[in-house]
Amino acid sequence: MTNIPSNINDLINKNEEDRIACLQELYRVISTNLPVGFTPCISYGMVSFSVPHTLYPNGYHCDPKQPLPFISFAAKKNHISLHHMGLYAQDEQGQNPVLDWFVLEWPNHSSKKLDIGKGCIRFKKPEDIPFPLIGELAAKITVQQWIESYESAFRSSKK
Predict the structure, then answer these.
(1) What is the mean pLDDT of residues 19-35?
(2) Which of 21, 28, 68, 97 is most deeply buried (CB count within 10 A of its CB)?
(3) Beta strands in 57-106 (DSSP E)
(4) Can you tell me the mean pLDDT for 28-57?
């Protein structure tokens, strides 16, 4: 099992017992598949994997003291949410090949209807999470690609 930092482990263990193993598995799948450079942290009350300030000193535009977020997850009252910023970002032409890939790949991994909006995937039950697909999704974007995508989207939204 991937070593989970104690502060993240504490956050995971505060959840209902039937969700703890699922959240631990999400952590394991994401952390073992993410490209090098993303670091685990707690951000906005969620388990997150972010671009550290050492790689992107500007931080998150909403709060530059925070590292640039990439993937986060949490157990909510009625679902488990997985936030993947790469699913939300679009290129200059308004395209998102990672989102397109994910939507096409979903039916190969789940019989459930995809519940997604603006980069947030919601799972009603822990057993609904297609962990192999989440692992593939985590591996799709490198730190450098995410920084470039983020800067491109952020700069164009400021024009």
Answers:
(1) 96
(2) 68
(3) 68-75, 80-84
(4) 96
- Please identify, in words, the CATH class of the domain defined by 6-158: alpha beta
Alpha-carbon distance 32 to 60, whole Å? 24
Exposed / middle / buried, residue 42 (Cβ in 10 Å: 0-12, 13-18, 19+): middle
Q: What is the dihedral of CA 145, 8, 1, 68, to 10 degrees?
A: 0
Cα–Cα–Cα angle for 86, 88, 92, nearest 5°? Answer: 90
Q: Which residue has the tokens 């699913």?
A: 87
DSSP helix/strand/coil, 52: coil
Torsion-angle region of 94 (φ positive above 0: left; ψ -120 to 50: alpha; else: beta): left
Q: What are the φ and ψ backbone dihedral angles of 19, each rounded to 5 degrees?
A: -105, -15
